[in-house]
Amino acid sequence: MSDSAPLIIKRNGETQTYDASKIRRRFERVMEGLDSDHLDVDMLTENVTRGLTDQIRYDKLDELVAQTAAYSVTKHPDYGRMGGRLCTTSLHKQTSESLLETFRLLHDHVTVQTHRPAPLIADDVWEVMQQHHKELQSMIDYSRDLNFEFFGYKTLERSYLLRIETGRGEMRIVERPQQMFMRVALGIHGRDLNNVRETYNLMSMGFFTHATPTLFNAGTPKPQMSSCFLVASKDDSIDGIYDTLKECAVISKAAGGIGLHVHNIRAAGSYIAGTNGTSNGLVPMLRVFNNTARYVDQGGGKRKGAFAVYLEPWHADVFGFLLLKRNTGKDDQRARDLFYALWIPDLFMKRVKSEGRWTLMDPNTCPGLSDCHGEAFERLYERYEAEGRGVKTIQAQEVWFAILESQIETGGPFILYKDACNSKSNQKNLGTIKCSNLCTEIVEYTSPEETAVCNLASIALPRFVDVEKREFNHQLLYAVTKQITRNLNRVIDRNYYPVETARRSNMRNRPIGLGVQGLADTFILMRLPFVSAEAQRVNAEIFETIYFAAVESSMELAKEEGPYKTFKDSPASEGILQFDMWKNARPNSGRWDWASLKEKVMQVGIRNSLLVSPMPTASTSQILGNNECFEPFTSNIYVRRVLSGEFPVVNKYLVMDLIARGLWNEQMRNEIISYNGSILNIDGIPDDLKELYRTVWEIPQRKLIDMARDRGQYIDQSQSLNLFLQSPTSGQITSMLFYGWEAGLKTGVYYLRTKAAADAIKFTVDAKRLKEIQEKESSQQTMSSPRVSQPEECLNCGS
């Protein structure tokens, strides 16, 4: 190295001259098991050297080395694994391999400013660690930390791994990923070391993950492990509204996402007897909730506070409600930090379809509409209409088109079907369910005395594929699901509840939520195009297995601990399970003995009122390197922007397939970038790969809705169903929402996703070639533009 070589500041403060050969060896040491034929260590070393600044700190050099590898991931997916390994080995140098030492650091943590104890590990968990540290240490396998891709590791580093304050006022990570999994297992199971071992192994080998709040908080002094809280407006009064607001603030502080219904809050202009004045309605009230969501964050920026507000479309303030998220308009009429959802009764959909009239009502003068559903709702609503109690009668389609305008501009409101949610619920014996949660997959009963709660986990489906045989291992999925069901049931008892109404509800009803991630990965590993009939069958059978295993596990827990308190008179108590509540349900696979299980459930009960609720899995699927939940891939190459940074992402399966066929090179990479991650129009790629790697924009949305319906008969809560339209029109959205409603879905749509006109990934692509591609795409788009059809048809079927 020449005299002008940069200086490196070591961790002990000493300096040394930069040596490129050491960097090269650093790359080579993490290459075991990776495809060395496609990894260019010389190129990486040269890029690190070029990116150096003089007197760079050693930890910053480590960061540069890992990022240099990871940012080459669009050339080969193993660069992402290399980047993850470089991050992990760097973390291992700075942390202790001793579980006992790490837990001591966390338990004995003292704040720098006040010098007061601020333990990050609960006393009972610390006691278990002290008594059993040798056995627990023997369970840990740190080599599993090397399985994280760069993107997954950076997600853990940003938010999940515990830190302590240093004397310099900085926060230092002291927890390794494996230690995090052990903390979670201990936080859930305590002294039950057999279940600790099983939970740790399944999580650390990537079979499943608990939800983000569980990973954040399990094993800590305030183990708030729940994801979702569903809050009922206490009362239509100043006391009731501010009691509700305080409850939302306290829950948000504890990292809970909130679903809130406001159907019972009187409309603008409604008379207030106590003051002889009139109400300002929902909009000013929701602006107060908006400011609370902004003010109360979730643990120093880990996650923003988030409230989803639910309203039925008969409410007289519905038009103002639908404007609250819009980008234009007066700020004093907007509340853009909240999320909005409509809780739509069947009667409204019927009126829209028949071009009928719709009466807007004030819950102050038309009480009880949110307290009933189905035929009872229709009788009460039509009685109020006949009595002339409504505020205003308009065409139902006026409300409908206001909904569509909002969805085209903002992606929302979320749409859920009130009657499907109630008629197909195992909690229907408790009363009318009035809202869902922040992500539209939780459907649970609420009241002023009960705030519904749900604890979640997602199963990593690709781990159950036998790649050689192209088969899905249902027996293994069954076994793993039973363990996760036990875990989530245990979380209910070990959980910290920020409000008493949440504890009361969870102890009475004990709902849990099982979801999935990596369904798209699973189909690719089994060589099944997402839209194929075989994929549709596998989709339904996976959820049948999950539901069967969860019901059986919950039944076994009921044998040990008794059924949940409100089991009597529930559908399950009468042998009615989720698929029995669906009209025209597809036949079960024959793999599982449902008749025998129903008999046992009627005899001994189940421990949990609800079991399955596929959620978005945005963060946790990033950790495990899977595609989100049950969605198709959105692109085959794209840039992902998250809290921890901006990262290129490549469909690793596509790259491996193209390598196997001798088609992967720089030119092919640039072609895929030029086509925004699509391969449908690239000459030279075989048709079977084009079918296998269709993106969500190239899949008829009717297929996504059909698959949601098929798995829906095994989902006793609901599912976070996004729909995707490149350039949505009112006709297209109407078609999709009516098709889903008539299919019996509970969630019509979570987010309506649209595609940006320009894409930031088009870097280093020849401008002339890019213009040719855009002209070709424009021509094909003109030729294949879909036409508007009637609401009962899905407009995207043939696109």
UniProtKB/TrEMBL annotation:
Any one Pfam family match given in the protein's UniProt record, by short name: Ribonuc_red_lgN
EC number: 1.17.4.1
GO biological process, one term: deoxyribonucleotide biosynthetic process
Catalytic activity: a 2'-deoxyribonucleoside 5'-diphosphate + [thioredoxin]-disulfide + H2O = a ribonucleoside 5'-diphosphate + [thioredoxin]-dithiol
Keyword vocabulary terms for this entry: Allosteric enzyme, ATP-binding, Deoxyribonucleotide synthesis, Nucleotide-binding, Oxidoreductase
Positions of region (Disordered): 774-799
A Gene Ontology term for the protein's cellular component: ribonucleoside-diphosphate reductase complex
PROSITE patterns: ATP_CONE (PS51161), RIBORED_LARGE (PS00089)
Any one Gene Ontology molecular-function term assigned to this protein's record: ATP binding
Domain of life: Eukaryota
Ranges annotated as spanning the membrane: none
Subunit structure of this chain's protein: Heterodimer of a large and a small subunit.
Family the UniProt entry places it in: Belongs to the ribonucleoside diphosphate reductase large chain family.
General function of this protein: Provides the precursors necessary for DNA synthesis. Catalyzes the biosynthesis of deoxyribonucleotides from the corresponding ribonucleotides.
NCBIfam families noted in UniProt: NrdE_NrdA
Record's protein name: Ribonucleoside-diphosphate reductase
Source species: Leishmania panamensis
